[in-house]
Amino acid sequence: MDDLDRELGPHGPVEDYNDFSDDNVSKGGTNLKRPNVNPAMCKETPRETGFHRSTRICLEQIREAVLHHKWQEAAEYMACYPQLLEDTCLPPAQQNKELLWRISTNILHHHPNSTMEDYNNIYERMKHSGVRHHLMICLEHSFHLLLHGQNEDAKWQLSSAESWRHGKESAAQHQRAELISAYRSLLDYVIWCDKRFSNSDNYFDSDNQGMHDHFRQASLNLKEILKKPGVWDPFILSYVDMLELYDDHEEALKVLNDYAYNNNFPPNPNAHVYLYQYLKRHDASEKNLMRVLKVLHVLVPSHELMLDYSALLLNSENKTDIQKALGIILDMLDFTCWRTNMDVWKCLKTVIQRLEIQEDWENVVCEKMALREDWWPALHFTSFHASKDLEENPELWKVKASLAKILCPKQALKYTADRVTNGKRT
Amino acid sequence: MDDEYTAGYREPCSECSAVDWGITDECHFYCRSCHNVIERTRDVEDTGFVQNGSSKISSIRKGSKKKPERGHIWMVCEGFQFILRNQANALLRLGVSPQFKDDVLCPLWRLFLQKSRLAYTSNPVKSSRFKVQDSDSDSAAESSNMSASATDGESNPPSAADSTAEDASDWSGSTDVSSYLSTRLKRKRSPLSMMKTLALIHLALVWSREALTLSDLLRLVNEGHVPYVNAYEQLPEEMKVIGKDALLFRVESIPSHRIVHKEAQALVLFLELPAFPPITCETLLHPELLSLRYLTDTNLPDELHLWVCRLMEQAGMADQTLHTFDPHSCPVLPRYDIQTAALIIVTMKFLFGLDDHTEWKLSNEVGNQSDSGDMFNLRRWYKLMQDVLMRAQQKRRQDIARKQWKAKKPIFPKNIGLKRTMMKKKRIAEQVQLCFEKLSSRPAGVQEVSPSSFRFCWGDEDGSDGPSLHHMKLDGVVTLKHNLLTPSNSTYWHPGLKKCDRRQCPSSHYSDMEPTLPRSFVWLLQLFSFLLDVKPPYLYEEVLKVERHVIGTETHCDVSSRKKKTRTRAKTKSSPRTLDRTLKTGGESGKTASKSS
Question: Measured between alpha carbons, how far is A313 from B362 in angstroms, rounded to an integer?
Fold first, then answer.
C-alpha cells in the first residue's frame, strides 16, 4: 500500500473534522496526516479519525471480553473488527493482520461453538492476507490439524507451505522455511508410524508402499536438515526410529555420533543420552557405553544415567574406576534432587565397600570430600534430616548413618537417632 | 423548463436546422437535437436568495455526446449535488417540510456554486491543470478560454479542451477533482467537501426554522438516517468514483458540532446572506420551546420550564434579535441547542445551588416532609439519571466499537495493482467477518434504531428508561415570599466571568477548572454533553456566556502570570440582592416586563 500513498500524492485526505478536545483548538489545519499509531495500540491519539476511533474502541472491548472470558461477546465484537484490514493508512498494516490472526484464533479456541471449519476458514484467510506471517500461520494451522488428529491435512499444509515463494520476503524468512521443511518430515514420520502400527506384522509387503514412500520422503529431508547446526531432538529420534526398522544401523550411528560430537552444534546433553540408549539397545561394549557417559557426566553431573555409569564402573576391576565411581556418585549427591533417593545412597554404600578393600582408601575418600566438607553436613546430615529420614524412610537413615562417619570423619555430626525436644539438643 | 427563456428565439440551428433550444448551465443557448452551443446567452440574474417557483435541481442533463467506457464525464460539483439531494430527501422522509428542499436548500446551493465560481457563472474557477498541460502559452490561453465557456463537459467542447478534460480525469472518475486539490486551493481548503454539505443543510434548516438542531442533524448522520459516510455509493452508475475522487468523497469521520458550526458560520458570511427569518418565541428553535424538549428528555419537572423562561427574560435573552442571524445586528450564527442546554443548567444552578451542599440539603428537606409524594426530589432524580446515563454511555461506546465505516463499493485507485490489493483485503475482511457473524449469531454493525428526537424514554411502559418525574412539583425548592415565588436557595456561585483574550488563551479553561468545580455541576454538564453529543468544555463555555448575560462581566479572572497558560479563577458569590431581583417572578405565568438588572 506504499504505492497508494504515492499515487494519491502529497495530499492527505481533505477532511480535518476531528477535534480531540476543545482544549486543543487546531490552528490552520491543512496539515492532515495519517494518525500516529503507537505500539500500544489502544492509546488514543490526537486527530484520530472516527474510523480509527471505532477500531480502537472495538479492540479495547475485545480485550476486555477476552480477559473476562466472555467469549460470545468477544466473537460479536470480532465480527465488527475486520474492517481494520481495509485501512489505507500505511504503517500499522502488518500489526493489524497479526492482531486479527492471533485474537481470532484465541477466540476460536475458547468459544463453545467453534468448529474445525471456522479454524480452517480463518487460517486460510489470514495466510493469504500478507506475506510476513504466511509461514508462521501455515505452521500454526498444521499444528492445529495435528492436534485434532488430521495428520494428512497437516502434512499437506506444510507441503504447500514448503513450496511457497515470494521473492525477497521468502528469502528473508528462510529459517522459517527450514523449520517448515523439518516439520513436514516429522509429519511424514508420524504418518509412517501410524501406518506401521496399523500393519504391525508385514512391514515389507508391497501394500505398504505408501509407508515406504513416507519413509523415503522423510529421510531424504531429515538427512539434510540434521546437517545444520541446531537442536533437533524430536527429529533425530524419529529418524533413528525409522532407520532402526529398516536395519540401517550404520546410518543411525553416524547420525547420532554426529549429533553428539559435532562441535558446530550447540552442546546438547540429550544427544549423548540418545546415543547411549541406542548403543545399549544394540548391545555395545561397556567401554563404548562408558565413553559416552563420560561426556554426559561432564555436561550434566546430576543426570540419572550417572547411576548407570557408576554401575558400569563398578563392574570393571580397575582401581581407578572405583575411585571414579565414588566421584561420580558424590557429584550426584551434590544436587538436592537426589537427597532422599535410596538407589543413589545404596550405590554409594556399595562403592565405599568396594573401596575399603583397597589400601589407602581413607585418603581417597578424604581427597574427594575435601571440597565438600564445609557444606555436605548441612546438606545431608543435620538432626532435622535425621528426624525426617527416620520418619519417612528408616532404611535410608540406616544407610546414611553408616556412611556419615566415613565421609565426614573429623566432624561431630548430629545425624543420630536421638530425639530433639523443644529445640534443645540433648 | 427552459422554454420560458427560449420561447422568444425561433432561429433554426446552424448544424441541424431544428428549432429546439435549451439553456446550458452557463446560460448559453444550445440545440437540443445536436447539442450545438451558440453565443446567445440568457442573462445571469443575481437574484435574491429566496426564489419563488424555481425549478428543482434534480437531474443531470442526459445525452452527453461523449460517452467513454468509464461512464459519463462528470464534475465534482455534480457529484456533490446528488449527495446533497439524497441528504435532503432523507430529511424529507423524516418529516421535514418540502419547502426546506425546494425553496431553501436548492437556491442556497446554487448561490453557493455561483459565489465560489464553480458553476452558474461566466467566470469559473480556472483549473490550474489546464494551464500545466500545454507548454505553449498561446494554446494554454486558448484552452482556458474555451474551458471558460464550456466547463460543463457535455456541451460541445472543442477538441483541445477535450483532450485536456480526458487527461485531467486520468486519475479520477470526475473531470476536475485535481483542481479542488491543487496546492493553491488547498491552502484555503477545498471549496467543496462532504462537511460543507452538512453545513449547507444546517443553514437551510435554520432558515426554514425546522426543529432540527445541529446536534440532531449530526445524530441522524451518525445513526445512518441521513447519508454521509459512503454517500457516494448512491451516485448513479454512470458516475464512476475512482482514484483521487476518494480524497473528496470518502470520509472516515463524522465532524463534530463545533467544526460544523464554524463551517456554517463561515459559509453564511461567504454567501453574504441577508437576515434570516426571525426566530420568535413561537419557533421551535427558540430556547423557550427547545428547552421544553430537553427538560422532557432529561426527566426534569415541567415546572422548571417556567423558571427557564423567567431567567431568559430577566437576562434579556428572550428577544428574537438575539436568536436570529442578521449580518448587522447579530453576525454570529446562534447555537440553539447548546445555548438552551446552558440556560437549563444555569436555571438549575439558581434553583438548586449545585455547590455539592445546597442541593442535597434541599433534597433532605423534601424527603423529610410527610407528604412528599409528588414533590421533586433532586436526589431521587440524580440516582435515576445517573443509572440511565451510565447505561446510555456504555451503549454509545459499544455502538462506536461496532460501527462499520468501510463501503461495500470502495473507491478504487486507478492503478490496477493497487486496486487488486484493495479488493483482496476487502475480500479477506468480509470473509473473516462472515465467519464471526456466524459464530456469534449476530451481524456486524450497529442495529438500526428508529429515529427520534428524544434520547430517553420516561414512563411506565415496557422499554422505558424509568418512571417519569415530569409531573413533580417544585414546592420543595421554591417558597412564597412577599407574595412572590422565589427560590429557597439564595446564593449563587460562578467562576470569574471576564472574557479571556483569545490570543493568550485559545482554548477552554475547563480542564484546569474542572477539579475545583462542584461535582454536581460537573455531572450535570456531562449529562447535557451526552445528550447533545458534544464535549463538556464546549458546553461549559456556553454556560459562562449565559452567566455573563445574566450577571455581568465585572468579576475578574485571577491571572497568575501572563506567561503561564494556566489560570486560576476565583469563585465569587453574587450578592443576594442581584439574585432576588433576577429571579423574582409574579404569581401568574404571564411574562414580566422588566429587563435584566
Answer: 96
List the single residue in B258, B422, B432 with the smallest CB-CB distance to A122: B432
A vs B: CB pairs below 8 A = 186
What is the C-alpha separation between B369 and B380, in angstroms, rounded?
Answer: 15
Q: Is B432 close to A100, i.e. CB distance below 8 A?
A: yes
Contact A215, A192 (CB under 8 A): yes
User: In this complex, which of A49, A53, A118 lies closest to B435 when CB atoms are compared?
Assistant: A118
* ipTM exceeding 0.85, yes/no: no
Establish if B581 belongs to a structural domain: no
Instruction: Give residue B128's identity as a one-letter amino acid code.
Output: S
CA B511 distance to own-chain centroid: 26
Q: Identify which of B271, B288, B267 has the alpha carbon closest to the alpha carbon of residue B115.
A: B271
For chain B, the domain total comes to 4
Nearest one of A242, A118, A218 to A159, comparing CA atoms: A218
Per-residue pLDDT at A202:
62
Contact partners, residue B375, CB within 8 Å, separation at least 6: B366, B369, B472, B473, B474, B475, B476
- Same-domain check for residues B299 and B435: no
* Partners of residue B507 in chain A, C-beta under 8 Å: 22-25
CA distance B548 to B382: 27
DSSP strands (E only) in B32-108: 37-41
Contact B401 A121 (CB under 8 A): no
DSSP B245-302: THHHH--SSPPPHHHHHHHHHHHHHHTT--PPPP--TTSTTSHHHHHHHHHHHTT--T
Chain A CB contacts of B258 below 8 Å: 19, 22
Residue of A8, A15, A113 with shortest CB distance to B244: A8
Query: Which amino acid, one-letter code, is at B12?
Result: P
- Nearest-neighbour CA in chain A from B426: distance (Å): 6
> Measured between alpha carbons, how far is B490 from B228 in angstroms, rounded to an integer?
49
Judging by DSSP bridges, how do beta strands B493-495 and B484-487 pair with one another? unpaired
> Which 3 state secondary structure label does DSSP give B571?
strand
One DSSP character per residue, A245-258 reads HTT-HHHHHHHHHH
Within-domain flag for B181: no
Say if residue B102 is in the same domain as residue B236.
yes
The predicted-structure confidence for A335-355, as pLDDT tens digits, reads as follows 989 988 899 999 999 988 888
Tens-place pLDDT, residues B169-212: 456 777 777 777 765 555 456 788 899 999 999 999 999 999 89
Residue B22 structural domain: 1-38
Question: In chain A, whose CA is at the least distance from the CA of B433?
Answer: A79
With respect to residue B412, please indicate whether it lies within any of the assigned structural domains: yes
For the entire predicted model, the pTM comes to 0.73
